[in-house]
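testing teh design pipeline on a random one, pls ignore if ur not involved
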């Protein structure tokens, strides 16, 4: 049970998401089904709160940015840089393919293309929350399957150790 919780928590984090949680589950000896379930559920758990809270957070941070100085000013500046970066990275996918483009962007198993960045991008691009939620969830599921496949392929390779 602790292993599944560790995978779930790793999937919640913006730096690891399913891309780090699935290999963690394998290392911890968790079954493939439990690893996938914990990773996908953990990564998807962050999306609804992010989409719901970003507007309010952005308004608060904009006020702090205008006030200037201090820790919150630096935090606000960093947040707006992240939103701009997310918008720039996701916009070509969303412009070309619409909601499916956000799913494709989320599904790419590379750093800064997961659920956290996709949520920021959906907010920055003004997407409908329900459409964004479904797109991101689809992308997380596809990313998890890709990572699980890659981890499975790598696990099946012969070791060079004697």
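output:
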């Amino acid at each position: 049970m602790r292993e599944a919780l560790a995978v779930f928590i790793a999937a919640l984090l913006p730096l690891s998401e399913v891309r780090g949680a699935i290999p963690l589950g394998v290392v911890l000896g968790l079954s493939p089904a439990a690893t996938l379930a914990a990773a996908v559920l953990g990564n998807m758990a962050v999306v609804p709160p992010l989409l719901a809270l970003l507007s309010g957070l952005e308004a608060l941070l904009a006020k702090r940015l205008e006030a200037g100085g201090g820790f919150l000013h630096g935090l606000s500046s960093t947040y707006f840089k992240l939103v701009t970066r997310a918008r720039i990275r996701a916009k070509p996918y969303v412009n070309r393919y619409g909601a499916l483009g956000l799913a494709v962007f989320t599904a790419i198993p590379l750093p800064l293309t997961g659920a956290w960045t996709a949520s920021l991008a959906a907010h920055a691009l003004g997407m409908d929350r329900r459409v964004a939620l479904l797109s991101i969830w689809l992308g997380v599921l596809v990313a998890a399957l890709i990572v699980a496949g890659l981890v499975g392929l790598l696990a099946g390779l012969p070791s060079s150790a004697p």
